[in-house]
Specification:
mainly alpha, 5 helices, binds zinc ion
Length: about 110
Amino acid sequence: MTRMWLVDPEFLCDQHLLGEHKEMHQEVGQIEAGNLETVKGHVREAQVDTSLLEQRHGELVEEMENRGFNHKSPLDYEDELELGSIDTEANLEDLKQRCEDCRERIEER
Ligand SMILES: [Zn+2]
Ligand SMILES: [Zn+2]
């Protein structure tokens, strides 16, 4: 499942950080392959904002590098779809519910 959490990357545990990063590549892959129905499905569920994919990828990579992960997958994407919107506050609550590691990171701050 593709999902842009779009919360401060410092709040994400390693697993969610790496997961969201991978999903940015997958989503751009879907768009480039022309699978727009899949993309629109994510948009309907408020999981993706296509205009933020490249920027978000950059933020996640920065945090990955801070944590010592190697990054060898540049993402070149220029958005022409401008689809989707994301409720960051709701995502923060959702992360706290579903992931103990993320919750600890969120509550530490
Ligand atoms: Zn990447
Ligand atoms: Zn997590």
